[in-house]
Amino acid sequence: MSEQHRSESGFPELPAASVNSRRRRFSLVWVVPVVAALIGGWLVVKAMTEKGPQITITFKSADGLEAGKTKIKFKDVEIGLVEEIRIGEDASNVVVKAQMVKEAERFISESTRFWVVRARVSASAIYGLGTVFSGAYIDIDPGKTGKSANSFIGLEEPPIVTTGLPGRHFILESDRRGSLEVGSPIYYRQIRAGEVVAYHLSEDGTKIVSKIFVNAPYHQFVHSNTRFWSASGVDLKMDATGITVNTESLVSILVGGIAFDSFKNNSDPDEQASENAVFKLFTHREAAREKIYSTKNYFVLLFEESVRGLSPGAPVEFRGIPIGQVVDIKSEFDFKANKVKIPVIAAAEPERISFQGKLPDGVTRENLTDYLVERGLRAQLRTGNLLTGQNYVALDFFPNAKPAALLRNGKYGYTEFPTTPTQLEEIGTKVSQLIAKLDRVPIDQIGSDLSDTIKGAKRIANSPEIIETVKSLNAAVKELQLLTAELRTRTAPEVNATLQKAQASFAAAADVLESGSPLQSRLKETLEELASAARALRVLSDYLERQPQSLLTGKEPVQ
After folding, report:
1. What is the per-residue pLDDT for 248?
2. The predicted structure's pLDDT at residue 557
3. Calculated CA dihedral for residues 158, 162, 165, 171, nearest 10 degrees
4. Helix axis angle, 492-513 to 518-546, nearest 10°
5. What is the mean pLDDT of the chain?
6. How far apart are CA 555 and CA 549, in angstroms?
């Protein structure tokens, strides 16, 4: 039988395998790798979908930064991690490469700012103490929404972040920065209302532009007529009421600050200021209180005396009231006249002076200044402060001033306003003139003549004739004294008796002339008889005038 199963090759044939047509089930061994692959794929997809933008930030140094450890935070929430730090191409800075989370994508734009938060101590506050233990980190200010960006230049100093805070930003312009710093406080009536966000030099280099932020609700008190002034240090004022010391706070004394308010003496529209409205930053409160006038007239004042103590910004006053200020001071030597002239450019604000009543005939607003100059209006240099020696320009009327007039379109480009010397200069001029006159007086000749006169007087006084005359005068005086004594003892009683008799005669005459006396009655009767005789004589003369023949024929009988 075994031979039957041998093949022709001599090998025994193998038994044929029986095939089972039923399908076998999936083995559980493959479940683990499949699940692992799915989880890995899901993790990859999730990592790809949740991966945020990759950015680069350029700093001047990598102080406190470490790759793989330094975090990027926004409001203390981690939104990124520093992956790589390398030196820049020009070796002047470092480039930080960071990976941001997906949620940080909406914060990243061209206006986003980055800076390193480290422990920092300033005069106004202490920042970043937590980084002493946790290490430095990069903070972010999203700023306004803008175009997408992935390369940024980091800030070396932490800015003031106002994004999302209620309030408004305003722009202040000033000639100098003073003691302002980023973070300097803003005060409204001695209440802290905001802070300085940033400052920079203007493009033309003529002013400092500061950006401030006023928190709500104080921003609603910033109007179009609001004034800002520097509140740094202590404001010391001496006036008629005494010494006044003003300051906003102890912090403003140490680190400076800005204050603002709206003054009632300003007539500008009282509207709330808009975002980023521009204001002028005044040097102090008193300067902010002054009213601003738009009209300015420029004049040139020519002084021949020294202007020591006069500087640009010095006031121009009219009887103690400021009406302008000095703008510029120059010096000019006139070779023809051999004199030094000092042109002083002054700006006057005519709106500060008001006029009452009707202008004189022929006088208008245009030629009013000419009219006042003709009446003696002049500019004079005066001392404003005896301690500091500061001078100012005073305008006043000088009736005895030399005639002068305004000179327009002169070589200085401004209207030339006439001046008058100072009182000290006038006194000095008069003293010089007096000395010059005294020099012309022949004092030696006068002294010689006076000496001769004194000698002649001495000779006359010592002459025998004068001595004899004095003796005779002395004897005459003695005789006059004897005569006076005799009159007093002898003549005086006789004069008194005569006066008594005259007084008695006057009394008798008064009795005779008294009304109702017998003499008066007889005198009255006599006067009446004389009147009757006068009337009869008048009748007789009239009759003889009509009938002169009656002297011969007699009076004709009446028929």
Report:
1. 57
2. 59
3. 150
4. 60
5. 79
6. 9
Find the Cα–Cα–Cα–Cα dihedral 386, 391, 393, 399, rounded to 10°: 50
As a whole number of angstroms, the distance between CA 431 and CA 119 comes to: 73
According to DSSP, residue 105 is labeled G
Enter the tokens of residue 152: 């940024």
Nearest to 222 by CA among 292, 281, 270: 270
Confirm if 295 and 350 have CB atoms less than 8 A apart.
Answer: yes
Give the per-residue pLDDT at 241: 47
Contact by Cβ (8 Å): 95, 56: yes
Report the distance separating Cα 154 and Cα 554, nearest Å: 165
86: β partners: 95
- Look at residue 208 in the predicted model and tell me its pLDDT: 92
CA distances from 426 to 305, 380, 429, 449, 521 (A): 11, 12, 5, 35, 88
Whole-number Å distance between alpha carbons of 263 and 37: 76
Q: What pLDDT score does 130 carry?
A: 67
DSSP 8-state assignment for residue 218: G
Query: What are the structural domain ranges in the chain?
Result: 48-159, 160-291, 297-432, 444-504
* pLDDT of res. 424: 63
* Sequence-ordered list of residues with C-beta below 8 angstroms from that of 6, at least 6 positions apart, any chain: 12, 13
Low-confidence ranges of the chain (pLDDT < 50): 1-5, 239-241
Using alpha carbons only, give the angle 425, 426, 432 rounded to the nearest 5 degrees: 90
Which amino acid is residue 61, in one-letter code?
A: S
Largest CA distance in the chain: 258
From CA 429, how far away is CA 437, in angstroms rounded? 12
CB atoms within 10 A of CB 341: 13
- Strand pairing report for 191-201 and 315-318: unpaired
Q: What is the pLDDT of residue 367?
A: 82
What dihedral angle (degrees, nearest 10) is formed by the CA atoms of 216, 218, 224, 225? -170
Residues with Cβ within 8 Å of residue 293, at least 6 apart in sequence = 349, 351, 352
